[in-house]
Amino acid sequence: MSDEQNSNGVPAPRDETGEVIGVRKGMFGANNGGDTSGYGGLVRTVTLPGATPRPYGGWFDEVADELEGALEEQDLLPENAIEKTVVDRGELTFHIAREHLPTVARTLRDDPALRFELCTGVSGVHFLGDKGRELHAVYHLRSITHGRLIRLEVSAPDSDPHVPSLVAVYPTNDWHERETYDFFGLIFDGHPALTRIMMPDDWQGFPQRKDYPLGGIAVEYKGAQIPAPDQRRSYS
Amino acid sequence: MGLEEKLPSGFVLTTVEQAAGWVRKSSVFPATFGLACCAIEMMTTGAGRYDLARFGMEVFRGSPRQADLMIVAGRVSQKMAPVLRQVYDQMPNPKWVISMGVCASSGGMFNNYAIVQGVDHIVPVDIYLPGCPPRPEMLMDAILKLHQKIQSSKLGVNAEEAAREAEDAALKALPLIEMKGLLR
Amino acid sequence: MTTPHATPRATTEGTVYTVTGGDWDEVVESAVKSDDERIIVNMGPQHPSTHGVLRLILEIDGETVTEARCGIGYLHTGIEKNLEFRNWTQGTTFVTRMDYLTPFFNETAYCLGVEKLLGIEDQIPDRATVLRVLLMELNRISSHLVCIATGGMELGATTIMIYGFRDRELVLDLFELITGLRMNHAFVRPGGLAQDLPPGAVDQLREFVKTMKKNLPEYDKLATGNPIFKARMQDVGYLDLTGCMALGATGPILRSAGLPHDLRKTDPYCGYETYEFDVPTADSCDAYGRFLIRLEEMRQSLRIIEQCIDRLAPGPVMVADKKIAWPAQLALGPDGLGNSLDHIKKIMGTSMEALIHHFKLVTEGFRVPAGQTYTAVESPKGELGVHVVSDGGTRPYRVHFRDPSFTNLQAMAAMCEGGQVADVIVAVASIDPVMGGVDR
User: Fold this and answer.
1) Which NCBIfam families does the entry mention (chain B) (predicted)?
2) Binding-site residues of B
3) Is residue B106 part of a domain?
4) How far apart are CA C147 and CA C130, in angstroms?
């Protein structure tokens, strides 16, 4: 995607190289029982924007070059650490192999040409359909020095939900990582005290995962019952 | 509580009821139990423009042991529920509860894993106040209605009888799901 | 589980654990033997001096706080999860209740994110953007007023609390006039605003600016030079620039350390680069500096509001794309706000396609192309970031709020440890955490 498209705010074109996060069938979300809409045969794959080829445009190339150079100086091959780079909607995302996350983050923070000194925490996303990489941890790093914002994305499978902790690099991530652990069950290795923060200590399960129900109750009206929001018919 | 509960039924008791009710309603001490958005409106009600002091209630007590009204102002989470019950238990009798806002009354729009669907699962509620959040005028109206309730509250044997009647009525009441007709 | 405090015992129903508190004689003996005055004080979650349901766990040696920790989560509402079961437009109704003192910032940040995902940032009408800025700046004033008012009350200064709530009422009157509600407005929607300004609003806004210009100096007279106020706040809650950067503190806390970092200047949104205003800073790194910054920010907000009023040009307040614009035609009827009679006449009487479109938009909502985005606005408390993920459906796949209160509250330990117990209250008040935003 070229820079002109970015500045116009046009979303990146959807190509087949994108990351498949799910397959949608039919219409009107009728996934239990018969689909009478006549659209039962409709099958669509849902993909997130795929890797972007160079040039990324603007200062994105500069940041990518600097990061790759700085990683090479530390005898770390950039293609091992950076799985792919995505430019979408004017935002730069580096997908990082999880074992190299602390090195990359430290480099981004300390290199004078990069200097991303402010981390705005971690946000967990649970892609049930992204087999083998279900749990994503998304970090947004802001450089006050250069006035830039980038995104790091790490993924871990549900069967091995471990990601290295960034608290040593960005102490602000202390509570953010506890929150993500609390809601998604992502275990941040190396966190000084990874305990629940929002839910009661004896809570079972991780409530914001996609396989955890919303937990609402049916609401009674006069002679009628309205099911909880996650039990109603919906549009997919 | 005291001697007034031991009085025999009759005009002495009803006179004492009147007097006790008048005294109690004139000086209700609310406990500060602000939880969420409604707490801000509760504070506004206590501040200059709405001036809760006109009803003898400007002193919000920090300690539940000196309070006799709990205004549950906001959504009650599963984590907060035991705390809320403990605060209620620490309040001396007689005590009243206003459930302020839909979240406290029924869970409101937050019908999910985190929120207790109605504070009446935890403590008995005297006044349910709708609104998200209710305006200060609505809170004042709820408080005035509570004053009426306090004024007409019973003592001693009369209180026992009133409790029995209330229980009988509740047992006979038709469940919501069996009611017919329009949704109103 | 084999701990000395929970002995297992096999029964017919399975293993039963008996939890005991250990041997109290030993505890008492060791407490008597130790010669220090170390005690652990648990403040909250229901305590008048901790903003809302914040729990502070303080280890105290005499009057000195040796260790301070926060317990949060007592207001966790699951809003982020609830959002995933409603359509994109309904999302504003939920996010406005997160940090309930800054509803317009939550709404705007969320809507900017959705608009970026849709790729319609350039199609938002100018009038909607100007009104968003206007509402946000009004909201900044009301939020700072509550911070100063409750902060003063926690110090025992009731007068400043009465002042703060008096002036906040003026802002809420405007909110009520414009949106119909005092709080929790859900007025900013993806694509623009729910409604245009009502008649007479501009005059009232001008009147408000005039009144506030008269009232704001009263805070200076009452507090700024007040020796008691200064003695309580100066050099209390100290956090220098290094600490701020490490802990990710933003907003007045960061600016009180001398760094003029304000997203309105450094990463402008909603056309803030075209407004004239200053970013106040202090170099004292303490609670007093933060108080002064908040006062000055209110004056700057008044400047921006005046510029907004002058800029208001007639025009639409909702994006022209009918596939996104909802609510389409609102009007105030006898039973409150709803679809205008003309619109209902049109869709019910003349055009079946319009009725189908309306039905689809209201029940199903619009689809947002798959992807993710991060938008940040400068809320009164700091950087309010929203991470929105879409899977191409009619509902958000994941919305995460990076609330400034949540991040700033982490700095509480760094500010309080080594200080006096009484100063903990001042430090927490100067952070201005709103538990609705912290816990969400």
Assistant:
1) nuoB_fam (TIGR01957), PRK06411.1 (NF005012)
2) 37-38, 103, 132
3) yes
4) 26
Binned at pLDDT 50, 70 and 90, residue C388 comes out as very high
On chain A, the residues whose CB falls within 8 A of the CB of C370 are 14, 21, 46-49
pLDDT in tens, C157-193: 888 888 999 999 999 999 999 988 898 988 999 988 9
| CATH number, domain containing residue B48 | 3.40.50.12280
Cβ–Cβ below 8 Å for B36 and C436: yes
Report the pLDDT averaged over residues B157-161. 82
Taking the model in full, what pTM does it have?
Answer: 0.89
CB C100 within 8 A of CB C440: no
Rounded to a whole number, what is the distance in angstroms from the first to the last CA of chain C? 33
Which structural domain range is residue B115 located in? 28-147
Q: Does a structural domain hold residue B61?
A: yes
Residue B143 falls inside a structural domain: yes
Question: Cα B45 vs. chain centroid, distance in angstroms?
Answer: 17
- The 10s digit of each residue's pLDDT in A144-161 is 989 899 999 999 998 999
Please give the Cα distance from A52 to C17 (Å, whole number). Answer: 57
Phi, psi of C288 (to 5 degrees): -65, -40
Put simply, the answer to whether A216 touches B111 (Cβ < 8 Å) is yes
The CATH homologous superfamily of the domain defined by A19-24+48-231: NADH:ubiquinone oxidoreductase Nqo5 subunit (3.30.460.80)
- Cβ–Cβ of A14/C369 closer than 8 Å? yes
- Domain membership flag for residue B88: yes
Domains held by chain B: number: 1
For chain A, the first-to-last Cα distance in angstroms comes to 28
Question: Max alpha carbon distance in chain A (Å)?
Answer: 71
